[in-house]
Amino acid sequence: MEKPQTVTTGFTSLDNVIQHLRMGDNVVFQVRNLEVYKRFVTAFIQANIDSSKKIIYIRFTQHDPLINNDSIEVFPVNADNGFEEFCSQIHEKITLEGRDVFYIFDCLSELLDRWATDSMIGNFFKVTCPYLYELNTIAYFATFKNHNSFHTTAVIRDTTQVLFDIFQVDAKTYVYPLKVWNRYTPTLFLPHLVHGDRFIPVTSSGDVAALYSKLGENDENPERDLDYWDRLFIRAGELRASPLTKNQITEHINQLSKIFLTRDERILELISVHFSLQDILSVKSRLIGSGFIGGKAVGMLLARKILIQASETWSSKLEPHDSFYIGSDVYYSYLVDNNLWKLKMEQRRAPQESLGTALNLREKILQGQFNEAIKHKFLRMLEYFGQSPIIVRSSSLLEDGFGNAFPGKYESIFCINQGTLDERYQRFTKAVREVFASTLSEEALTYREKHDLSNSEEQMALLVQRVSGSNKQDYFFPDIAGVGFSYNTYVWDPQINPNAGMIRLVVGLGTRAVNRLEGDYARIAALDRPQCIPYDGLRSFKAYSQQKIDVLNIRRNRQECLSIQELMDRPIDLHQTMIAERDHETEQKIQQLGLKRKESWVFSFNPFFSHTDFPLTFSKLLKTLESAYRHPVDIEFTVNFNSNGNYQINLLQCRPLQVQGFKKRIEFPEALPLNQVLFKSKGCFMGGNIYTNIHKVIIVEPHAYNLLSQSDKYEVARIVGRLNQQINKEITTVLLLGPGRWGSRIPSLGVPVAFAEFNHVSILGEIGYHNTGFLPDVSFGTHFFQDMIESEIFYLALFPEKNETIYQLDLLKNFAETTVDMIPEKSNLRNVIKVYNITPGKPGLQLISDISTQEIQCFFTDT
Fold first, then answer.
1. Which residues does residue 395 pair with via DSSP β-bridges, in sequence order?
2. Which residue intervals define the domain Pyruvate phosphate dikinase AMP/ATP-binding in the entry (predicted)?
3. Is 137 part of any domain?
């Protein structure tokens, strides 16, 4: 067997005691003060500085430097940016330096001031030390004795190769080797008196007992069974009974908020205004693990508190919540416990080139297991919820703050929560793993890259909520669900006030409110004119009302999409008399056909708007939140009716609304010749006022597209994606027009592109014809809409069959050049996809919209 390469500690006598350091050793010193650690660091450096090995000092604390030597490289790391960023920087440095390097680390215990949790110090040690060992290094670390929890101390002891306890008694220093891996002598694991440069073992049992008696330390302190994190909150609880000034209370709220609520300065300001110390402690009482609870959870809690503080009436209007929060540290610990951290670092190092690594990591996350401590806490939570359906929602650190919404990028998973406790635990943990894995989906990685967040720490916390609703025979769902916006950028009528807000409503689960519906419609309402529909001028409104409903089947333990009529035929009460209108025309036709008579209803929500104060109440709710945030907001909510017919609102989510700027009113050109107008329309656009030149127009011709086979329709989508990749949005403004709904998963409803296949265009238009079945879906409030807003894509819908619409796309042939480079030679596809480049030197193409008049024009002009 090859003899290990040895290295001196700088003390010959200590080398003899431990049989020298060996390459690969991680060496931990438990000390009472930093000067003792510094003495051993200094001796090591002095003895090894002239060797061929490079020495690097990893500097990350506020204490005085351990090393003041210009020949030693100092590598600074900012621990304030969190665990992942801290580990990543050190991991990258270690990788860059390679094998056979010496490292000196600052005192690990001082990371508690930055992270406030022992468990993450243990995790850092578990992922860093094996990698250092693999690279054949020697690394020095220190911790303060009795400063860390027993669990973290045990993790360090189990992971390191060498562990020294260093203490002083009667002005004498003692070194006690607690662990020296793969080495042994009869006196090795005894305290050693440091006498000059000699390390003398204390062999008498009486002397050892007397020594520890004088030391007088109480390692059995019950507080050390707790993480430093828990001790912080215990002390905060004790402070409630203390006579503190307002400034002292605010200081404690700010301290605790920064370690487990958010790092967003604007959200922290709101918390300091609206949260009490008791609020903070109440959230902590429902926290599983440690770390941040994430943006989605904070937004929900903050919105509720803002409303209740604003008026006592909200206490009766809002359903109470009893959510639980799974801290972001649980996600990191899960990766560490399942030996996935190294793979995580590989994926993070080159996110643009590591989709394969991400997919591999994603699969391994789905197969991992939770440690016993977390399992026990999960089981207690499930016992609390019983068999009530719950939802596991992503609540990452970057979600739902000012700047990035991450709309629909991470998973939310329903747990119908039926069966034995073990069965419920298995389904729940499967849902948790799926949400964790969604951080590595291609869509999420693309979003992070697009917003320059690939190298930002994305801590995934979870929000576990009781699903709002009630049992209706075999099903569970809320009476109404929806999304609301304090500012309405989709104003389809000049009399609508954008500041009054808007809502998007559905019957049943809110999944149909936040996603574009395939072959179905949500109800959109402006809160100041709720019965004014955006489909004015189209055929019967009932064709554009909701036909299907998402529910939880509690008997079959799964989520289902059913026909609303099917539920009503059971019969299941959908409160149709309160939210729907009888469709007597359809009932008459059914009777004429000799079919069994059934009631038929159109879920317009008009009775709800006209017979209750809901529109006014909801507008006040949104304005109250907008005023507190000093910014437009969007929310997710449910509405349930009690036995008296009164409604209650359950506020599920609140975040700053990502909106494009509202520019000043635009003046349209006067007396524009008809032969210069490409199209002109009233209403049906989103994005506020716009005045822009267009350099390229891409058209998928609706009637020609309608005649294609399904496979050819998918090919059209891929061609659009390739054209999209050629666009430089900074210098080229592109208008993309096509039939029905862009992004539909059903080709017969629209072109089935992914968002990444049209995200470089500046203006997106949907063309609606009745005879083809292609009808736009006003996507305001969906994740699709949020993607468009964040990508600054202006949206419009054109209905050529409407009398007031001018629609003359053939004019492009007169003013623009066609391109066929990216389009296959199949004649049917070249008839479908047209690409027009606006020719320099010829009349330019301009698009103008004005939100106050609800007019939009696209025309050619010489100016």
1. 461
2. 293-665
3. yes
